[in-house]
Every structure is written in C-alpha cells, then in structure tokens.
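Quick one: structure tokens for this chain, please?
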Amino acid sequence: MIQWANVVWGARKGAFWGILYAVVAAILYVVDSGPQRFDRNGINIGPLFLVYLFGGFFAGVILGVFRPALQRRVPAAGVSILAAAPISIGVIVLVTGKASQWGASEWLGTLVSSIVFGVIGMTVLWKDRDWL
C-alpha cells in the first residue's frame, strides 16, 4: 500500500531539485547574455524550466512511492533508474520533438540517460543515507 507521507516526502525532494536546476538554467541564461547558449542547442528556456520542474517533481514522487525499497542497494538502483525516466524523457522531447515521432535512437537515448543518471543519483543517495 502506498504511504502518502512517503509520496509527499519524495515530491518535496523532487520539487526542490527541479527548482534548483531551473534556477541554474536561469542564471546561465542571464549570465551568458540571453538565449544564445540555449539557441545553439535548439532549446527554449521556458519549456526547459517546465521539464526541470515537472520532471523533478515526478521523479520525487516515484522515489516516494518506492521509498521503502531505497533501503537496499539493488532495489534502490532500479527505483533511481525509474525516477530518472521523467527527466530523460522530458529532455529528449525538448530536443527532438514529440515522442510519437521518435525512432530507435531517441528511445535508446532515453534508456541510456535514465540508467546513467539513475545510477549516479542512487550513488549519491546511498552515500548520504540520512537523506533517505
């Protein structure tokens, strides 16, 4: 059964990180003379903020739903990979367009980035056990 206190815990953690990434993007936008950095990569700053905010929130919700599994290393790795998926999907949609138009390379990119960022996230979480 889902413990709503864990979901709220995760949502708060995810929202915090989403806001933090959005603030970093805003600082880069201001310091780097506007949209040039983002335009070079075909990224609009507004949708990027949304990806960070909503991706962070949903990643946190996933962590919260599966919070009891975060106490063991192997399940924590799986949960972290799953939690990285909303952000990976959001970033690739932002760069390439609708997921309905994706080919194998976009789906593979989503899978690989979810694994890489999920494992990195799990490693950070695992080392700072008080965070759990």
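Helices lie at 4-31, 36-40, 45-65, 73-96, 104-127.
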